Amino acid sequence: MRFIVLESSSGTGKTQMAFNLETTEACDVFYVLCTPVADRDQDVYRAFATRSNTFVECLSKDLEVLKTGSFGITTKLYEYAFIAAAVRGDDTFQGRARREQVEEALDRRKQMNGGKPFVFFLDEFPRIKASLCGHERKEREAMTR
Question: InterPro entries of this UniProt entry (predicted)?
């Protein structure tokens, strides 16, 4: 799965890009906001609140496991189960999955839709700011690996 990062100031159209990609029908887009969604957030964020909050919750659970290992060593993660379900088009998932299950789901999807790319669009992806230090900086570094 390839990742493309759009980094720019607030209000420059990064969120809109996800929906522009979807309307071209050149790829399938799965939009996720990478921060917890609050009631005060934009309507577009609230529309994806359940999905986005689940993504963040999976990430938090996996970070606990990854404190003692790495993605290469850890065989099953909640995030893998979340991504595999997204690729399959499932509304729900349970437990953890292996990386291989994500790859299998991607292969099946490509076969079913003629090779159309699947874009997992991570909006508001956290950055490591120079102003962060100590525990907060270490947590952010772990989250972005």
Answer: P-loop_NTPase (IPR027417)
C-alpha distances in Å from residue 35, one per residue of 24, 32, 102, 115, 126: 26, 9, 23, 30, 8
Specify the length of the chain in residues.
145
Summarize pLDDT for 13-54 with one digit per residue, the tens.
888 998 999 999 899 999 998 887 776 678 888 888 899 999
Specify the pTM: 0.78
Whole-number Å distance between alpha carbons of 138 and 70 = 15
Q: How many Cβ atoms sit within 10 Å of the Cβ of residue 71?
A: 12
**CB 34, CB 56: distance < 8 Å:** yes
Distance CA 46, CA 30 (A): 15
